[in-house]
Design goal:
The protein is of the alpha+beta class and 104 residues long. The chain has one domain. It has 2 helices and 9 strands. The protein has a 3-stranded mixed β-sheet. A two-stranded antiparallel ribbon has the order 4-9. The longest helix has 12 residues.
Length: 104
């Protein structure tokens, strides 16, 4: 069973995430058990990813693409907040750059 964790947004909405923590603690929920709640706001957790996204854009913008699409795999853990997920032992970032064909 997965570990569940509640994270509140800055507007007071609650989002429940399935988390992958190696820390000891309850796994899944027993009847009547409450989902643990993280004290940090979702926006604050994701703010740690923003500098990485900005740096990726900065690296490629000199190439002059018409669009730059960045895809991150994000893992949320109770201990570390949001981190860029690994895939096959390396960080999971996909960058797609496109150039429009000049009109004739």
């Amino acid at each position: 069973m997965a570990n569940l964790l509640q994270i509140e947004t800055e507007h007071g909405e609650t989002v429940v995430f399935e988390v992958d923590d190696t820390e000891p603690g309850p796994v899944g929920l027993a009847p009547g058990e409450v989902i643990p709640k993280l004290d940090a706001k979702l926006e604050d957790i994701l703010a740690g990813i923003r500098p990485a996204a900005a740096k990726v854009v900065d690296v490629f913008k000199d190439l002059g693409p018409d669009t730059c699409q960045i895809q991150f795999g994000i893992t949320i853990t109770a201990a570390a907040g949001a981190v860029i997920a690994k895939a096959g032992g390396s960080a999971n970032i996909t960058v797609t750059l496109t150039w429009a064909k000049p009109s004739s």
